[in-house]
Specification:
152 residues; Translation Initiation Factor IF3; 4-stranded mixed beta sheet; 4 helices; elongated; binds zinc ion
Length: 152
C-alpha cells in the first residue's frame, strides 16, 4: 500500500497575506510530496512495513533510536572504575562517561576537574548502587553515584 499525499484542504492563497500562495504550493506540492515519495521508496525496500501507519513507523523509529542511544551511552560508560587513576585516564581520553561513587564534597569534584578537566554531568536519582561504596577520589563513604565526562 503506497502512501498518498492528501490534497491541501484549502486554496494555496487561503493564508495570504501571512503565507503567500507560492510558498504554500512549494511546501505542499514539492516538500511534502517528496517526503511521501521517499517514504514510499523506503517501503518498497521493506514491504513488511507497508501495512504500518506513519504513526506506528515513527513510533518504532523513535524507540529504535532511543535504544541505540542507550546502548551507545552504555558502551561508552566506564562503571565503577578500579581506582582514581583509571577514572582520570578514561576521562582524559574523552572516551565517554565514568560512573563512580562520589562523597559529595566539592574538593573531590575540583580535584577530578583539575586532573582531567571533566566535571560531573549527572547525579541520577535512580542509579543502582555500585559495588564500591567509597568515593573514587577520597575513599570516604559515597553519597551517590556521579557521572563524570568532558564538557564539549
Ligand atoms: Zn570524595
Amino acid at each position: 500500500m503506497a502512501f498518498v499525499l492528501p490534497p491541501l484542504p484549502y486554496a494555496f492563497a487561503a493564508l495570504e497575506p501571512h503565507i503567500d500562495a507560492q510558498t504554500m504550493e512549494i511546501h505542499h506540492d514539492r516538500h511534502h510530496a517528496t517526503y511521501v515519495n521517499n517514504l514510499n521508496g523506503a517501503i518498497e525496500k521493506h514491504p513488511e512495513l507497508g501495512s504500518r501507519t506513519v504513526e506506528e513507523l515513527l513510533s518504532d523509529l523513535q524507540a529504535s533510536l532511543f535504544r541505540d542511544a542507550l546502548d551507545e551511552r552504555e558502551r561508552r560508560t566506564l562503571r565503577d572504575p578500579s581506582g582514581y587513576d583509571e577514572m582520570i585516564e578514561y576521562l582524559r581520553d574523552a572516551a565517554g562517561f565514568v560512573a563512580a561513587p562520589w562523597c559529595g564534597r566539592r574538593q573531590c569534584e575540583a580535584r577530578v576537574k583539575d586532573d582531567s578537566s571533566a566535571t560531573i554531568r549527572c547525579l541520577p536519582l535512580s542509579e543502582p548502587p555500585l559495588e564500591s561504596g567509597a568515593c573514587v577520589c577520597c575513599g570516604r563513604p559515597a553519597a551517590s553515584v556521579a557521572f563524570w565526562a568532558q564538557a564539549y
